[in-house]
Amino acid sequence: MENPWLKINHSDYENHMIEVGQSQILNSLKKYCLDKYQPKNFALLGCATGNGLEHVKSNVTNKVYAIDINQEYLNKTQEKFENQIINLELLKRDIQNEELAIKNIDLFFVGLVLEYVDPKKTLNKIIETIGKNGILFIVIQKNKQTTFVSKTKYKSLETLSDISNDVNENEIDSFICLKNMELIKKEEIELTKSKSFITLEYRKKE
């Protein structure tokens, strides 16, 4: 079966995320991470069309890896940011089946990706790329008696329900802490009465 992410138009995705208020929160979380950690090497998995990359400071961050399975999204990211981000590298990757082939990442941001993949298999690949004292920042969606994908007029996103799964943040935390990573901060951000974001912030031990 072809991955549904390959069939969703970038404008449908962007507008859906704005309508449900998730795009704005993810944007602010990326700004928080970039401002706090000032990474030399930054990786963004599931970059879509580059939401949040406007907060990259090229005089601080030497390399940005924007990673996604959908080439159309990557093309849009390049169009928007190639003149702003000096060393922007676009990587088309199916994280389930391909290696990332990058290393020494100072900040790795994973927002709403683990719900669509094998979380532990994917996290193994991500953690391998993180350098000494590097940061892993994860955003997980938590649902309370509701559908995973919020209903909007952008019907193409409803196909994601076929591959989405709830992710247990406690299981994820236990797994990551076995990988020489320490939890710095955990937070829950309420979106609606039935949905919230869980953020998990880790540092790689020396």
From TrEMBL:
Single annotated GO MF: S-adenosylmethionine-dependent methyltransferase activity
Keywords per UniProt: Methyltransferase, Transferase
SUPFAM superfamilies hit by this protein: S-adenosyl-L-methionine-dependent methyltransferases
Methyltransferase type domain ranges (all copies): 45-138
Gene Ontology BP annotations: methylation
InterPro entries, alphabetized: Methyltransf_11, SAM-dependent_MTases_sf
Classification via Gene3D superfamilies: Vaccinia Virus protein VP39
Pfam families attached to this UniProt entry: Methyltransf_11 (PF08241)
UniProt protein name: Class I SAM-dependent methyltransferase
